[in-house]
Design a protein that fits this description.
mainly alpha; 10% strand; elongated
């Protein structure tokens, strides 16, 4: 009983001493704040920013997500089809100009011999013009599709970069040698560590 009385007096003495100085102000830095288990705050605008940056300049959204190895891939995915478009456009104009000269009755186009005999027929020029135009339009579609794909990649990567993915939570396949059946046993192992 005396020990309890002693602890009660000690507790009252501490409380009385803590409130004896009326000039003391409470400083917020002195408060003990419990730290949250989440190491960083979820940024809801991160995926939208990454998609916007990637829409403005291909690869910029990947750089914003700190996936620097994807930047050259995004630039190549948009740049190569644009280059192919320009090559097909030049080829289309060359063939179209020669086709127009042939329709006008001339023989001095680049697909004719110096003596005026054509080494590509007019029908062949027409087919080549259609093929070149189709390739040009196809490269525009591929450019648009890859442009949208790199925007989607930046957006999805912006979402997934904020999730905690570590070895404590893993889903791994395993193979176990079964001594009784003298063979292998296959399965999956789900590990969750607190």
């Amino acid at each position: 009983m005396s020990h309890r009385f002693f602890y009660i007096l000690l507790f009252i003495g501490i409380l009385g001493r803590a409130q004896s100085n009326p000039n003391t102000t409470l400083d917020l830095n002195d408060l003990i704040v419990a730290k949250d288990s989440v190491s960083r705050v979820y940024d809801a605008n991160r995926p939208a920013k990454a998609a916007f940056y990637s829409a403005v300049i291909p690869g910029l959204g990947q750089a914003y997500n700190k996936k620097y190895w994807k930047v050259p891939l995004a630039l190549a995915a948009v740049g190569i089809p644009i280059y192919i478009y320009t090559v097909n456009d030049k080829e289309y104009h060359r063939i179209r100009d020669a086709f127009r000269i042939r329709l006008a009755g001339g023989t001095n186009d680049e697909f004719s011999n110096p003596d005026g005999t054509p080494f590509i027929t007019t029908e062949g020029l027409e087919r080549a013009q259609r093929t070149s135009q189709r390739n040009k339009e196809l490269s525009i579609l591929i450019t648009a599709a890859l442009y949208v794909l790199q925007i989607i990649d930046a957006n999805v990567d912006g979402h997934l970069s904020q999730f905690n993915v570590d070895r404590n939570l893993s889903f791994l396949p395993y193979m176990d040698y079964n001594m009784l059946a003298i063979g292998n046993t296959y399965g999956f192992n789900l590990n969750y560590t607190f």
